[in-house]
Design a protein that fits this description.
CATH class of the largest domain: Alpha Beta
Shape: globular
Structural class: alpha/beta
CATH architecture of the largest domain: 3-Layer(aba) Sandwich
Largest sheet: 10 strands, mixed
CATH topology of the largest domain: Peroxisomal Thiolase, Chain A, domain 1
Helix content: 25-40%
Strand order of the largest sheet: 5-4-6-8-1-9-15-14-10-11
Radius of gyration: 20 Å
Number of domains: 2
Low-confidence stretches: none
Number of helices: 14
CATH superfamily of the largest domain: Thiolase/Chalcone synthase
Mean pLDDT: 96
Length: 416
């Protein structure tokens, strides 16, 4: 990627996020390094008590309470994250024009929460649809969260949502890179959002599949790679990045988190829910090829592993296939701390690892008490952080239902 002209090299200059344990990157990083999970038990309509990652943030910092009421939870999270990302990047619209700015938001699902709520509300009135809100249609269209961001910020460039299951956050990052390189936009706000914790249907479906995590301590329920893992902890969250060309970022003296050095997406083409390690391995290899890197060049692999039996094993098999012979590649998992934030998962997890370029620390996987022999990869960082002399590359895996795989590789920009 070093051979590309600076106008074709795309960098991250701002991050805004909401996670179940933090509402800014600094706090998020501290919680990850400390292995501090704030997963809790909630009482969900029709389902009962379940473990979940629920976000707490200043919901009226960037728009009024009545605007939140008219909009969606996903939109509220998105507006907060987008504004925080712009502030973090120190971007104003005197340098970048609103009509040349794109907003691309990855989603696993959208509209489920709103539909369930409306059905519940009219059930109190003998299912009389006269009580169905006229706000329902704009709340549930797929472009809603991205559109709510544009309305809040007055951005008149293109906006849309990208439905890519739990690979959606990575997919939105890839879209942002491509659109800037094509010259369609000068700057992109892109990332992922999930409001899953408001949907009883999503919890009920995972429970019916036998894939909903259970544990007497909610903070220990999410345990990827562990022999005693028993499923997913569902979380909400969001993360939005500011992407721009390297030359323009350097010109304005921006702080650069890293460069999107390579990426890939592919499909298993096999099953609705069961992942397939060989295709995941192909996706990682393609991302490495596009980045001009070898497996041994990667310092951190942030795994997708969710805590399901087969899912963790398939990914570990894929990593073994690609990275055997890479003794300096270390592996961690962010979902062990925050649960699975679905459409936001990939970008939240990448964000939590980006500060490693500065502090040289790899945050640990927690709740890994007895590793599954089929997941016993060398160099899994567990229990406490791992300090390295230098960290310059991160490979971020994010895979989803109906067989969609995504990999994004980020490189440190070397000073000078």
């Amino acid at each position: 990627m070093e051979n590309l002209p600076e106008k074709q090299r795309i960098v991250i200059t701002g991050v805004g996020l909401v996670a179940p344990n933090a509402s800014n990157l600094s706090d998020f990083r501290a919680k990850l390094l400390g292995g501090v999970s704030e997963i809790r038990t909630i009482d969900l309509r029709y389902v009962g008590k379940v473990h979940a990652g629920v976000c707490t943030f200043d919901e009226t910092r960037y728009r009024k309470k009545k605007e939140n009421k008219r909009g969606t939870r996903a939109g509220c999270i998105g507006v907060y994250c987008a504004n925080e990302a712009l502030l973090d990047a120190k971007v104003d619209f005197s340098r970048y024009r609103r009509e040349n700015t794109g907003v691309y938001i990855g989603l696993t699902e959208h509209g489920t929460v709103e539909t369930e709520n409306e059905v519940y509300n009219i059930s109190k009135f003998d299912y009389n649809v006269d009580y169905w809100t006229h706000h329902h249609n704009p709340r549930t269209v797929l472009n809603n969260p991205a559109g709510e961001i544009t309305m809040n910020l007055g951005i008149t460039g293109p906006h849309y949502s990208i439905g890519a299951a739990c690979a959606a956050g990575n997919a939105a990052l890839i879209q942002g890179v491509q659109m800037i390189r094509l010259g369609e936009v000068d700057m992109a706000l892109c990332g992922g959002i999930s409001e899953c914790t408001g949907s009883f249907g999503i919890f009920a479906s995972f429970k019916a599949q036998g894939a909903l995590a259970e544990h007497e301590d909610p903070k220990k329920a999410s345990r990827p790679f562990d022999r005693d893992r028993n499923g997913i902890v569902i979380s909400e969250g969001g993360c939005v990045y500011i992407l721009e060309r390297l030359d323009r970022a350097l010109e304005r003296g921006a702080r650069i988190y890293g460069e999107i050095a390579g990426y890939a997406m592919n499909s298993d083409a096999r099953d609705f829910v069961l992942p397939y390690g060989p295709r995941q391995a192909e996706c990682m290899r393609l991302a490495l090829k596009r980045a001009g890197l070898e497996p041994e060049d990667i310092d951190i692999i942030n795994t997708h592993a969710t805590g399901t039996r087969q899912g963790d094993v398939e990914e570990c098999s894929a990593i073994k296939e690609v990275f055997t012979g890479s003794p300096k590649t270390f592996i961690n998992n962010t979902k062990s701390v925050i649960g699975h934030a679905m459409g936001a998962a990939g970008v939240l997890e990448l964000a939590g690892n980006l500060p490693a370029f500065s502090d040289g620390l790899i945050h640990p996987t927690i709740n890994l008490d007895n590793i599954d022999v089929d997941c016993a990869l060398p160099n899994i960082v567990a229990g406490s952080p791992k300090q390295l002399d230098n960290i310059s590359t991160i490979l971020n895996n994010s895979f989803g239902m109906v067989g969609i795989n995504s990999v994004v590789i980020v490189k440190k920009i070397m000073e000078g």
